[in-house]
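Thread: Modeling a multi-component assembly for a lab meeting

Hi all, long-time lurker, first post. My supervisor asked me to bring a structural picture of a complex we are working on to next week's group meeting, and I have zero experience with this. I have the sequence lines for every component (808 residues in total). Could someone generate the structure of the whole assembly? Inputs are pasted exactly as I received them:
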Amino acid sequence: MSGSAPRLTARGVAKSFGATPVLHAVSLELAVGSVHAMLGENGAGKSTLLKILAGVERPDAGSLELDGAAYAPSGPLDARARGVAIVHQELSLCAHLGVAENIVLGSEPRRFGWLSRREANLRAERALALLSDGGTTLPLDARVGALSAAEQQLVEIARALAHDDCRLLILDEPTSSLGHADVERLFATLSALRERGLTILYVSHFLDEIRRIADRYTVLRDGREVASGAVRDTTNEALVTAMAGEAVEVGTARARSPGEVVLSLHEVRGARLPKAASLELRRGEVLGIAGLMGSGRTELLRAVFGLDRVRSGRVRVRGLVGEATPRARLAQGVGLLSEDRAREGLALGLSVAKNLTLSRLKPLLRRGFLSQRAEHDAAAFWIARLGIRARGPDQRVRELSGGNQQKIAVARLLYHDVDVLLLDEPTRGIDVRSRAELHELIGELCAEGKAVLIVSSHFDELIALCDRVAVMHKGVLGPARSVSGLDERALLQEAAGA
Amino acid sequence: MKELLRRSWVGPLAALVAVYALFSVLAPATFPGGVNLTTMLRQTAVVAVSSLGMTFVILLGGIDLSIGSAVALTSVVVARVLQSGAGVVAAVTLGVLATVVTGWLNGVLAARGKITPFIVTLGSMSVLRGVAKGLAGEQKIDADPHGLEHLMTAGAGAALPAGVWLTLALAVAAAIVLHFTVFGRHVLAIGSNENTARLCGIPVERVVVAVYALCGALTGVAGVLEFSTLTVGDPTDSIGLELEAIAAVVIGGGSLAGGQGSVAGTLLGALLMTVIKTGCTHVGLPNWVQEILTGVIIVVAVGIDRLRRR
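Re: Modeling a multi-component assembly
Sure thing. I ran the full set together rather than chain by chain. Output:
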C-alpha cells in the first residue's frame, strides 16, 4: 500500500473470558483510504476484536493506535468521539423515528435547549450525501420502520458518518440481509467512502464480496491472526485453507445402513428464506446442513417444524403431507431443537422436570391430575441417562451451565420419543465435554433407528458426525453428498460461495 | 429451610404476621380476636376471589383491567334477574355467565386479534361499565336478595360466613388446577416463555382464551359476593377493584412479566391490604394515611422480592 502512516494499528491484542482465551496476541494494520476484510469461522475471535475496536470490551494485553496516537476507548461513546463507528449485523435504529432523527440520535443539535430540526436535517443530508454521489433518495422525514432493510442500513451507516470526523467504519456482515441489487448499491457507497479517505473494516464470510470490495485482508482462526496481505495476491483456496486450517479431517464413510425415508422435502420455500430446499432423510442416518449465518438454514428447520410458514413446496413425513404446526409435527414424531436456548428452547425460570416433560404431559397423568412423582421419575431417568449435572429435577434450568441446559432441551425430544430430530446448532455455546457427549448421543440415537437432521456452522462437526452433508448458500440447499472424502475446506468454500 | 424461604408466599406471610402483630399491640382492645378476624376475612372475600382470576392472567403474562366493571355488571345482572322474579339460581347463573362471556371476548381479542391485553381490557373496562349503567338505568337496583345476603353475613359469634368458605374452596381449587393439571402447566409455560410453549406444541391461543374466560368466571363469583354484601345491584360499584387485585397478586410474589406467582401468595396479599386498612381504622388513622401505607407496601413488597431473587 501507500507509504503513509496507517490509520489503525493493533499490536499483540489479547483477550480472555474467564479461563477461555479468545484472542491471542493479534496484530492488525489498517491503511488510510482502504477497505480491509476480516475473515474467520464462527468462534475465530472476530466479534471480540470488533468489540475491542469499538470500545465495548477492553483488551487484556496489547496496544492500539489510531492515526499514530494511543487509542484506548473507555466505551462505545468514546470510540465514536475518536472517529471509530461500527455498524452491527443487527441494526440498532429506532423504528418509530424518522431518518434524520435517527441519524442525529444521541447528538441532537440544540438551540437554547430546544431541538433544532433545521440543523438536524442539514447534518443528516450531509451524511447521506457522503453515501452516494448526490443520488440519495431517502426522504429525511420518512419513518425508519417503513424502509427496506437496505435503506435502513444506509441510515445506520449515515449515522456512523454523521459523527464528527468518522475515520474508521466497521461493518459486521453487512450483506447478510441484503438482496443482490442492494449489495451492488452498498459496494458503490463503500467505494465512494474509500475515495474520501475513510478506512473501512469489512467483516464477511463471502469470498466473492471480499474479492470485489477489499484491498487487504486478515484471517483469524482460533483467536490468532493466521494470514494477511493484499487480496489480489491470494486465491480463494488459500483463504479457505487459512480459515479452516491445514490439518482438516477428511470424512470417512460410516458403517450405517439407513432405512426408509422418514422426511422428504421438495422445493420448500419459506416467507423469505429458504428459497429452494429439497432433501430426503432416512431412518438411521445423520444428515448435515452446512451453511453460514444468514444462509436460511435455521429458517428451513423452522419451516419444516411448522413454526414458520411454508410458501411453496412440500414437506412429507413418512410419505404423508400432514398438518404443519409444531403440535402436529410433534404428534407425527418430528421434534426441533432450537438454536436459541434462552429465547426459545427452554423456559429458564421453570424446573428441569417441567422443561423436560413440557411437550408430553399425558404419561404423567394419574386420574386426570399431574403426578409430581411421575414427573420426578421421568426427569430423574433422563438426568441419569444423559449425565445432566443438576442438583435434581426441581432445580431451575437458569442455574445450569450451557451444556447441561442443552442436554435438557435434547432430553425433551427423547422423552417425547420423536423419530426425526431436527437439531439447530446443537453444540453452540457449550463446553467441550458436553459437546463430546452430545456427539456420542447422536451416534447412539442413529443406531437406534432415529433420523437426525443437523444444522451447524462448525463444519468439522458435520464431517465427524454425518453420513451425508448438503450445503446451503443464500437460501438454496445443494444436493446431499456422502462425507466420504469431503473435508471442512470443501464445505466452507461452497458455503462461502467461492 | 433454604428451599422454604425461596417460596414466593413466605415474604407476604411474614409481612402479614408482622402487620397483624403490630396492630394487635397498637389497638389491643379492638383489633385482635375472632370477631374482627371474621370481619376482615369477609371484607377480603370479593378482592380475593377476583385476585384468583387475576393470578392466572398475570401468571400467563397478561393483565385484566376490566374486572372492577365486570363485578359491577354481575351485581346489576343478578339484581335485574331477581327483580324479574326468575329466582336465585337463574340470577347467579346469568350473572356469572355474563362475565364468562366478556372474559372470553377479552381472551379472543388478545390471543387471536393480537391486541395487547392492557389495551383490550382497558377498552372492556369502559364498555362493561357502560353496559352495567345502561342495564341498571343509571341507578342502583333494589331487589329482594332471596337469601343471597346470607352468603356474606356472619353466623353466631365469629363463625365464618359461607362466602368466606367459598373463597377458600375456590382458592384450593385454583391451586390444584395450577399445579396438578395440564392446563395449569400450560399457563405456567406460556407465562415463563411463550416461544418455548409454542415449540412444545402447546396450543397457546386456546390456553390464553381459556384463562381470560376463567378469570371472567371468578370475577362473576366475586360479583355475586359483592351483590350479597350490598344487596343491591350497583353499576358504579367496585371502581378500581382491578388495581387492588393486581396489587394482591404482585404483593404475593407475582411478576407482571409472567411465569411467577402463586395462589397462596395472592390470598396473603389480599389479606395484607385488608389488615392494613382495618388496622388503621382501629388505631384511628385517617383514610389518607391508609392509602399512603398501602401504596408503600406494594412497592416495598416487590422491591424486597426482587432483592431476594437476585
